[in-house]
Design a protein that fits this description.
By secondary structure, this protein is an all-alpha fold. It has a domain at 106-260 and 290-311: MetI-like fold (Orthogonal Bundle), CATH 1.10.3720. The chain has helices at 2-22, 36-63, 67-70, 85-92, 104-134, 140-151, 159-169, 175-200, 203-211, 216-224, 229-244, 248-253, 261-269, 278-311. α2 crosses α14, α4 (85-92) crosses α14 (278-311) and α5 runs parallel beside α8. The chain is flat and about 75 Å long.
């Protein structure tokens, strides 16, 4: 009798399966590739991409044309004869004020400003954010409130007091003074980013390390740092783009011999002497913007991961 009931159950199961198979596919119907929704969505994305790519295209083709071809007036046409002379002139011999050595001087000035500013600000902000997230100390809430206020104060209102302070310290007009300014102004927002990221990590890891006897630096170096690559990339991209593209601090806190690349670019583009060389101007603009573009394209995926993993979580 047991065998008969088992056979009946198996037969009933087979009948149910065959019934489902005979009734056709189940589940949601696949969406059409050329549906109205997709056409609108991708159409808007293509329009937005063209809006941003068209100026870049004009800059690239103009930088590869000679001045006689530029004077024909068709800015969208590709170059009939490609030349890299404007690029060479923008780098090595364009006049940026009293000096006619191109953007090369400003490039190395920008590198000397960028590297220590990024390294110091990220190092200090990461440790500060880690302390605020995992180690409660007396006055931590007050310190956190000050950071929030400092992150959103317009830096334009601080320029004059900083000029006086740097002058009294004897470093006004030097690269050292500008490095200090960029480092200090970058730390509040970076500390908030690191604090929010470390808060989003599992608290059990921190507690387990404390139980095992790990101290402040051991937990930070052996547990937190290996898990924090995305937020470090976010901080690096924010600092690199902000410092490299800065114009105001560069023109206020430095002198002509130590101008960063953006200030020299402004001097080239807005020069009122001689013939307006649009091809050299476009080449100089592309050279100035190359570094942050390269940094973003190389690490853009990690940037998105860092934002999604807690950079904007409270």
């Amino acid at each position: 009798m047991a065998n008969i009931s088992t056979l009946n159950t198996t037969a009933a199961g087979l009948d149910a399966v065959s019934g489902r198979l005979g009734s056709g596919p189940s589940g949601a119907r696949p969406r059409k590739v050329l549906s109205q929704r997709n056409i609108i969505l991708y159409g808007l994305l293509i329009v937005a991409a063209l809006y941003y790519l068209l100026p870049l295209y004009v800059m690239i083709v103009t930088s590869m044309k000679g001045m006689p071809e530029i004077r024909l007036g068709n800015i969208f046409s590709p170059p009939m004869e490609i030349t890299f002379e404007p690029w060479a002139k923008a780098w090595a011999s364009a006049c940026t004020g009293l000096n006619c050595d191109g953007l090369s001087r400003g490039f190395w000035n920008s590198v000397r400003i960028l590297v220590p500013s990024v390294v110091v600000s990220i190092a200090v902000a990461s440790v500060s954010g880690y302390a605020l997230a995992n180690w409660r100390f007396k006055g931590s809430d007050v310190f956190f409130s000050i950071l929030i206020v400092g992150a959103f104060i317009p830096y334009q209102v601080m320029i004059y007091p900083i000029v006086i302070l740097l002058r009294e310290l004897g470093i006004y007009g030097t690269l050292t003074g500008l490095i200090i300014v960029h480092t200090i102004f970058g730390m509040p927002i970076l500390t908030l980013l690191f604090r929010n990221y470390f808060t989003s990590l599992p608290e059990e890891l921190f507690k387990a390390a404390r139980i095992d006897g790990a101290g402040f630096w051991q937990i930070f170096l052996r547990i937190m740092l290996p898990m924090s690559l995305p937020i470090f990339v976010v901080a690096m991209i924010l600092q690199v783009t902000g410092i490299w593209n800065d114009f105001l601090f560069g023109v206020v806190f430095t002198r002509p011999d130590s101008y960063p690349m953006t200030v020299q670019l402004n001097n080239i583009v807005n020069s009122v002497q001689g013939v307006k060389e649009y091809n050299v101007n476009m080449a100089a603009t592309l050279l100035t913007g190359a570094v942050p573009l390269i940094v973003y394209f190389v690490s853009g995926r990690l940037f998105v991961r860092g934002i999604a993993a807690g950079a904007v979580k409270g």
